[in-house]
Specification:
single chain, alpha/beta, 8-stranded mixed β-sheet, 14 helices, 37% helix
Length: 442
């Protein structure tokens, strides 16, 4: 990379929902010469009752797999794109050949991932035409292995080599290719990952992720009223919050840029003047006035509690418990334990319809005095790099929750002191989130 500033910019579905949004995106890209590589999502909702194009494509796939006629739904998709093309004044530009090929592929039961990926593919074609940028099909530069896992190093090498030949380019998000050349997608929201992959490949100075919010909020605005925007957050803090349900950025999007030490700027397409949130490799502990950086949580957890006298002196007890879970291909979230008790917190979905079998296997393997499974738990993560240097954080947290008349079922603080995890009844989840935010945020 040369000495000039270089930025990779990714735009979400709401940022590219219609022609008016396309114009905003174009204005943003053209405002700085440094914005040379653009990663678009598929068109999102234009209004609350609208459909995302990706959801319509999934519907086409399901209908075709049942032998149903897809023409009505497919027509909604093509009209959406044709409307954008017409409103942008792209005279003489047409996607008719692409529509014909995609429709035929859907009818002949092309893979689900292929069908879903066409939203980004078509949006990328239009955006490249409108900007006057080169178009690069992500299937030619993003690769997965035979086992379906992302091949980071092969992708980085191929992406870097290809982009070195293009001064400016649009690379659609969300998908890549398997070794047999079939299309493979990341999980929903995977365009964030594509943007991060491109950023790493070109070793850019900044990865801008444009969405419909002015940065990363300290808490879910559906639960906490008017939460503050986070000015600066570290990769590690973001990873903790994303895993616990914060959804501004796909959690896997952190890794490619983290490897390269590239900062991410979360920005608002509708308010480009807002500075947004900077996501950085590390940050000064004194850079924020708040002790905590953010709060996130989610419902849907269960706790298995095993009791056995003298458990602490029984060598290998914990290993055998985890071995049972491993054999059942069940991952665990946390392991709060006492002298004669061991608790394992799991995703409830992972043990649905198999609780009795799991209990029997645990009983045979470790012979506990008692074993119980309780559902309807919610986990809340309180995250902040300043927590390590602040006294009384746990006490302040528990006091805030107690004043809200919420019972804490579990508390777990890692040795890094970056976060504290608590478990509460699902019915108390929203009340606990509100109480924690009020207790910590000025």
């Amino acid at each position: 990379m040369n000495s000039e500033v270089l930025k990779v910019v990714k735009f979400g579905g709401s940022s590219l929902a219609d022609a008016a949004q396309f114009r905003k995106v174009a204005d943003i890209v053209r405002a700085e010469e440094s914005r040379r590589y653009v990663v678009p999502s598929a068109p999102g909702k234009r209004f609350s009752a609208d459909d995302k194009v990706t959801d319509l494509l999934y519907r086409c796939y399901e209908m075709a797999s049942k032998g149903e006629d897809i023409d009505e739904v497919f027509s909604i998709i093509t009209k959406r794109y044709d409307g954008i093309i017409a409103d942008l004044g792209l005279e003489g530009y047409s996607l008719e050949d692409e529509y014909t090929y995609i429709r035929g592929s859907v009818i002949h039961k092309a893979g689900r991932d292929y069908v879903a990926s066409r939203g980004e593919y078509l949006n990328g074609k239009i955006l490249a035409e409108f900007l006057g940028y080169d178009f690069i099909d992500a299937a030619e530069v993003i690769f997965f292995r035979e086992d379906g896992k992302f091949d980071a190093e092969r992708t980085n090498e191929a992406m870097a080599a290809r982009l070195a030949k293009h001064e400016r380019a649009v690379i659609p998000g969300f998908y890549g290719a398997m070794p047999n050349d079939t299309i493979k997608t990341f999980s929903r929201g995977g365009s964030d990952i594509t943007g991060s992959i491109v950023a790493r490949a070109v070793q850019c100075d900044l990865y801008e992720n444009w969405t419909d919010v002015s940065g990363f909020l300290m808490a879910d605005p559906r639960i906490v009223k008017d939460p503050k925007v986070i000015d600066t957050i570290t990769y590690h803090e973001l990873r903790e919050l994303s895993y616990m349900g914060a959804t501004v950025l796909h959690e896997d999007a952190i890794f490619p840029v983290r490897v390269a030490g590239i900062p991410i700027n979360i920005k608002n397409t509708n308010h480009p003047e807002d500075k947004g949130t900077m996501i950085v490799p590390s940050a000064d502990i004194s850079a924020s006035e708040d002790i905590i950086t953010g709060i996130a949580g989610k419902k849907g957890f269960s706790v298995i509690t095993l009791e056995k006298d003298m458990m602490n002196s029984e060598v290998g007890f914990g290993r055998r418990v985890l071995e049972v879970l491993e054999n059942e291909e069940i991952s665990f979230e946390h392991l709060p334990s006492g002298i004669d008790t061991m608790s394992v917190i799991l995703n409830t979905h992972a043990i649905e319809n198999r609780k009795d079998d799991l209990v029997n296997k645990l009983c045979r393997r470790v012979k506990p005095d008692s074993i119980t499974i309780n559902d309807d738990l919610a986990l809340i993560a309180v995250v902040g790099r300043r927590m390590v240097s602040a006294k009384g954080v746990a006490a302040k947290l528990l006091n805030a929750i107690a004043e809200a008349d919420v019972n804490v079922r579990m508390i777990d603080q890692g040795s890094s002191e970056l976060n504290i995890i608590i478990a509460v009844e699902s019915s108390d989840f929203e009340k606990a989130m509100q109480a924690i935010y009020s207790g910590f945020v000025k």
